[in-house]
Amino acid sequence: MNKYIYLFLITALIFGILSIFLFIFHYNTLGYIALTIYYLISFMFYYLTEKRFFYALTKSFISFILYPFYPLILILQYKKIEPIYKPINYYEHKLVDTSNIAFSSVDLAPFNIILKYGDPNQRKYVVRLVYNSIKEEKIEFIEGINLIRNAIKEDTHPDVILYASDALTNLENHLISKISYYMKNLNTLEDYINYAKYSYYYANSGFLAGEHKFEVLWQSSIILRTAVEIFPESPVLIVYTLRILESLNEYEILEEVLNEKINKIRAQELYEYAIMYYIKRRKPKSVQKFVSEFIDLGFSPEHESIKFLLGG
Domain map of the chain by residue range? Predict the structure, then answer.
């Protein structure tokens, strides 16, 4: 039956297009004959598929509304052609088990190489792997998002672009969901740290700009400046608070909080933040001061830039 249906529809399409050319070249009689055959074939198609005369008569008038390409639409409908792109399931077919990846061991350079020189399937797998690794916090959130965003900018394959776009959308929804949850459940130190972390990621991942970005940062800064007084000995919470203040360009307040906290708890995380912050602010005396204290306290640098700076 399918073979005859396709034959009917292709014949109707040919006569429909033929009738247009006949009318254009003023062969009106032949044009009407071709148009009549086009309609009769459309009628026969519905009659053969449904076996109802009045249904076929009514439905066949659609062929005039969409003349002469209605048969082509029906051919595509019966072939059930699917789009090239299928929404990605990010939890299928992971390239590697990311649960055992140490944060410091992940180098994004190989991902960039595959995104530039791999075939489309390899590039999609990299997008999936980066997506999974970001959500599991095996790679730095903002760097991972920037890598996916670069794939959208630089890739020419529509399937890869759609996969990467889906990944960004899902990651933004993930951040919004986390912020919303922790906003309503700020009870423990861990709740405040997670709220700070996801707020910082959301504001600095390119999803927000202008007033929207400022609003997220400002709201989180108010909450976190209170939180660091409730939990004054948490260097992780303090560092996220400082990062948010830095994103707001509130340098005076940041330096007040930093100097107050670093003199009290002398944590490695605070010293590493302070050294990197004052390097960016181009204050060599402050850098020298904190580097000297860092060495005197016997800390071993974890930040790659500080390792380089200290020759480690």
Answer: 2-79, 91-179, 185-265, 266-312
Asked which of 16-25, 37-46, 166-175, 261-270 is least confident by mean pLDDT, the reply is 37-46
Is the peptide bond prior to 68 cis by the omega test (within 30 degrees of 0)?
yes
Furthest CA-CA distance within the chain = 101
What does 85-138 look like in DSSP terms, one character per residue?
Answer: -----TTSS-SS-GGG--GGG--SHHHHHHHHHS-HHHHHHHHHHHHHHHHTTS
> 76: which 2 tokens?
């595509």
Mean model confidence pLDDT for the chain: 80
Let me know: does 227 contact 244? Beta carbons within 8 Å. Answer: no
Q: Inter-axis angle of helices 251-265 and 268-280, to 10 degrees?
A: 150
Residues in CB range of 138: below 8 A, 6 or more apart = 98, 101, 103, 106
Query: Is the pLDDT at 102 greater than 60, yes or no?
Result: no
Residue 130, pLDDT score: 86
Q: In this structure, what are the phi and psi dihedrals at residue 141, rounded to the nearest 5 degrees? A: -55, -50
* CA 101 – CA 97 distance, rounded (Å): 8
Residue with token string 């969409």: 66
How far apart are alpha carbons 31 and 66 in whole angstroms? 17
In angstroms, the CA 272 to CA 6 distance is: 71
Residue 234 confidence class, pLDDT cut points 50, 70, 90: very high
Cα(76)–Cα(46) distance, integer angstroms: 16
User: What is the 8-class DSSP label of residue 66?
Assistant: T
Instruction: Report the b/e string of 43-77 with b at 16+ CB within 10 A.
Output: bbbbbebeeeeeebeebbeebeeebbebbbebbee
Do residues 137 and 102 lie in contact, with contact meaning Cβ atoms separated by under 8 Å?
no
**Which pTM does this prediction carry?**
0.63
Task: Answer whether 225's CB lies under 8 Å from 272's CB.
Answer: no
